[in-house]
Amino acid sequence: MPNTISRRTLLAAGGAAGLALALPGRLASAAETVKVAGIHASPVENAWNSRLHEALQQAAKDGAIDYVFSEGVAGTDYARAMREYADGGAKLIVGESYAVEAEARQVAADYPDTAFLMGSSGGPAGDNFGTFGTWNHEAAYLAGMLAGKMSKTGTFGAVGAIPIPEVNNLINAFRSGVREVRPDARFLVGFIGTFFDPPKAKEAAMAQIDAGADILFGERIGTADAAQERGILSIGSLIDYTPRYPKTVFSNAMWYFRPILDGALADVAAGAKTGKDYSPFSFMKMGGNDIVFDASLTPAEAVPAMEEKRAAIKSGAFTVPVDNTEPS
Length: 328
What we know:
Elements: E1 6-10, E2 34-39, H1 47-61, E3 65-71, H2 75-87, E4 92-96, H3 101-110, E5 115-119, E6 129-132, H4 137-148, E7 155-160, H5 165-181, E8 186-191, H6 198-210, E9 215-218, H7 223-230, E10 233-238, E11 249-255, H8 258-270, E12 289-293, H9 303-315
Parallel strand pairs: 2-3, 2-4, 4-5, 5-6, 7-8, 7-9, 9-10, 10-11
Antiparallel strand pairs: 1-3, 11-12
């Protein structure tokens, strides 16, 4: 790999060879092990990338895949990294094509025997370029329902990366959840123009607090730092931030990549086309997202309505709209 790419490698434990793992919803047999490469534009500690990385690590631990990965891959190196992993025998390449949509699709067209699974704002392409969106919007909606009952000022802030469909959808769902219980709510939003810049996210959050927001939705890492410093509450996204920010982050809109990964791996194992949208595996009913919250920070009276809506989402009785329009 190029020197500009930070590479770490994780292989499934050799002791798992020959063992059949009876794990519900998981690819089980070591005989079916697939070489999978992860290409991360940000460090794997970044919230979004950590979700992919954790699921891939767990799949390797389960014996379903051999996993190698690169992190901190610049856009100028991304297509080259894809090609080198494909040339190296990876059967499935997982990554993100937001900044390199045309280049990534061209690589996939050049390697028809390799499956690609990319976080993308565009649709799938050909037989082997699959896409997925980060759809934890259902959990964000539920977090908004809790937040709507907790704000004193009625002003809610949100700090996002870039106004792409996946980010817009998440913030819009949060707002919709707030409005369900607080129709008169006022909203502030800020985009930091990058996927990983905690100090910039903190700065944007500080501005929203100064403008009256007393609950923040942190689509980006750094938002909760501002909330903690100013003594207000915050909501995390993708991962559970509560242990890192006790008494500050009261709820998290969790996202789980494993159902998406398993769907793609099943298609690879079956020799099926992978050029499709795997986003529906993100739905709550598929185990792709859910809410977690700290009961000690959340008023008991706010919980029943949220839990009722949560059950309705899981049963299919209620659908949280996918709204990709840029929030104003």
